[in-house]
Write a sequence for this structure.
């Protein structure tokens, strides 16, 4: 049974997006270090295509901690044994998975929807199962609407399909969810389509949040793992290789118990020798969630925040309980805990290992989720190998792998079926890409997806169908971006063919395309042409960013100052946020305070501006003003950063209070991060 419903959840809804383009890192690959003795096969693909990139998507940084009770749209799939609840407007997150026979929630179901700055586009929230497709750093669609539809097969089965068009790398993906009538398990069948003539760098991880208790324990089908060290080497992410459950980073701690780890930690199981890799998170009673898959999904992972001050703060902060203000309730530190940890499954050795998909290829597999029950004494055995063997026997008894292979083949055959009933729109960009392909005589998009148009992409549709690119007022912002080379050719052809001077935004967008592809001189030329047509804050900001890429601080400051005087500056707070942060970074504190004081009152609710102002005041000894900034409840705190503690430390030699401290340092001085972007 599949149906649409709602659930009342205390939520801080997103309030729009940042309109600025955030450009790709100059280094497309990320530099990764390995400890001495790491096997050579672990080095293959390390860092490949893991550098920062999000365009044509924009940053989702418009949220606060003022939650309200909301009717959140859900899509439910259930039979007599399992109930699965998805959030289509929040990346398709599997928010709840209940074993109805046992009356047991198998996932960590957060009591709130509270975004925080932890993902590649900023906004992210904890809980449930997240489907990470696209680029290192969670998913572009983590806090966006994705498509859902029901599909009816010829054998009478009705199943659920989630799907989207990934605009950054130009590919389509879908996940079909199957719940047979008599099944006690939920089956997911992801498919990634590369319908282009070029290789595709692929990132895929299923992130499963489960409740964390002192007894929570992790098992997997491999005994060996790559572990991330809590301290980076040469400022780079660093991995070592070892055998569970003891690693050199904490030689006296059984790391199969996440609650015992004194720092943020992650380790990755290499299950390539297994035909059906699996992982389980079990509790004191020997029961808990497990997943098993076909062999394509060959790697598993454990992540925990760590039993340290910052880890407990993050766990409570994401649950909407810990406040970030000097007026926080007493006892918050004593009551804080990590709440959850994650078991994950992916296509590569770690999330910092990239893989390449050949042109015109299609990858798919099947992953199963459900309740696993093991003898409590076996699961808690001090001998992890004995416990792991007991868990493995239970997994094999629970899942008939030969039947799983047959189901995988059946689900692959059904993956091309057209949708029967739309349940959630997937957005208009897939429709535009389909139209572009049809007009250019290219291969069609997968028949298993359906998209619809909206007004958002009209300028680009006019460029495609009419060969024109309409003027956009600077007061309306730059609009949506495109970065694909096929769209760049269309925009270049329009500019070259124009008998009159094209509008500023045509040059602006062409410059964005060139910058994203590494053509910095070409980008500069386009933006200077845009300025000749109409001087805007948007173009000046891009020129400032280009100057920063070249380490030209003076040039960047000059362009930001010009942006303040240019058209469109007061249309959005984003340019002011960047300028204020740069002023503080370069120790121009008086100028930062002057800028902050000159801005509209409504903008002074921006976390970024308040933090910059607080840092400037603290640095100049204006303690009363600095303390005022610390009295607000901040939402936009970046993982691995402690801006509030920094304001405190500019005025005090003593450590910051718990409410301001997001540092991931353990008592032993180790630090860690979940996903370094």
């Amino acid at each position: 049974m599949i149906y649409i419903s709602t659930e009342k959840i205390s939520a801080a809804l997103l309030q729009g997006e940042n309109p600025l383009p955030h450009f790709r890192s100059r280094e497309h690959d990320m530099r990764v270090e390995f400890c001495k003795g790491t096997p050579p096969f672990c080095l293959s693909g390390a860092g490949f295509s893991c550098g920062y990139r999000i365009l044509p998507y924009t940053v989702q940084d418009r949220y606060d901690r003022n939650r309200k009770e909301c009717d959140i749209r859900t899509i439910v799939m259930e039979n007599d044994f399992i109930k699965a609840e998805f959030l289509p407007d929040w990346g398709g997150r599997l928010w709840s998975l209940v074993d109805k026979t046992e009356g047991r929630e198998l996932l960590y179901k957060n009591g709130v929807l509270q975004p925080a700055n932890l993902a590649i586009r900023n906004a992210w929230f904890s809980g449930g199962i997240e489907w990470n497709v696209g680029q290192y750093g969670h998913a572009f669609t983590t806090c966006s609407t994705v498509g859902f539809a029901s599909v009816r097969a010829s054998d009478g089965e009705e199943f659920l399909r989630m799907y989207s068009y990934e605009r950054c790398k130009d590919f389509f993906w879908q996940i079909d969810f199957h719940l047979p009538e008599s099944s006690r398990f939920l089956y997911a069948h992801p498919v990634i389509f590369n319908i282009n003539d070029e290789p595709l760098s692929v990132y895929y991880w299923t992130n499963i949040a489960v409740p964390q208790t002192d007894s929570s324990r992790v098992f997997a089908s491999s005994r060996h793992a790559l572990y991330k060290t809590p301290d980076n080497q040469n400022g780079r992410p660093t991995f070592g290789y070892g055998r569970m459950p003891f690693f050199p980073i904490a030689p006296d701690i059984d790391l199969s118990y996440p609650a015992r780890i004194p720092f943020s930690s992650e380790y990755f199981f290499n299950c390539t020798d297994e035909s059906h890799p699996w992982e389980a998170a079990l509790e004191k009673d020997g029961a808990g969630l497990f997943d098993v898959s076909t062999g394509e999904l060959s790697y598993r992972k454990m992540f925990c925040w760590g039993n340290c001050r910052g880890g407990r703060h993050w766990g409570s902060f994401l649950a909407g309980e810990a406040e970030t203000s000097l007026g926080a309730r007493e006892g918050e530190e004593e009551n804080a805990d990590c709440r959850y940890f994650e078991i994950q499954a992916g296509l590569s050795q770690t999330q910092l290992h990239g893989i390449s998909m050949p042109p015109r290829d299609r990858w798919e597999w099947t992953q199963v989720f459900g309740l696993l029950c093991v003898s409590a004494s076996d699961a808690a055995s001090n001998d992890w190998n004995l416990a792991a063997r007991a868990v493995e026997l239970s997994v094999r008894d629970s899942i008939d792998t030969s039947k799983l292979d047959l189901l995988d083949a059946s689900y692959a055959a059904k993956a091309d079926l057209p949708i029967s009933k739309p349940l959630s729109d997937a957005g208009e960009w897939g429709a535009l890409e389909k139209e572009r392909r049809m007009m250019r005589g290219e291969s069609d998009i997968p028949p298993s997806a359906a998209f619809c148009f909206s007004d958002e992409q009209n300028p680009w549709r006019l460029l495609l169908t009419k060969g024109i690119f309409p003027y956009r007022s600077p007061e309306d912002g730059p609009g949506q971006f495109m970065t694909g080379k096929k769209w760049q050719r269309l925009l270049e052809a329009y500019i070259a063919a124009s008998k009159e001077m094209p509008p500023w935004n045509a040059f602006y967008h062409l410059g964005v395309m060139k910058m994203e592809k590494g053509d910095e001189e070409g980008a500069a030329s386009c933006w200077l042409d845009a300025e000749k047509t109409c001087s805007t804050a948007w173009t000046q900001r891009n020129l400032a960013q280009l100057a920063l890429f070249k380490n030209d601080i003076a040039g960047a400051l000059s362009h930001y100052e010009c942006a303040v005087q240019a058209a469109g500056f007061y249309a959005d707070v984003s340019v002011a946020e960047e300028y204020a942060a740069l002023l503080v970074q370069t120790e121009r504190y008086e100028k930062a305070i002057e800028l902050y004081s000159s801005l509209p009152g409504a903008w002074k609710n921006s976390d970024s501006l308040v933090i910059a102002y607080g840092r400037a005041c603290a640095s100049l000894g204006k303690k009363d003003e600095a303390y005022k900034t610390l009295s607000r409840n901040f939402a936009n705190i970046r993982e691995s950063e402690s801006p509030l503690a920094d304001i405190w430390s500019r005025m005090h030699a003593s450590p910051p209070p718990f409410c301001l401290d997001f540092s991931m340092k353990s008592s032993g001085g180790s630090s860690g991060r979940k996903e370094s972007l």
Q: What stands out?
A: Confidence is low (pLDDT under 50) at residues 667-677. DSSP finds 17 helices and 28 strands in the chain. The longest helix spans residues 384-398. Residues 460-660 form a domain with the Serine Threonine Protein Phosphatase 5, Tetratricopeptide repeat fold (CATH 1.25.40.10).
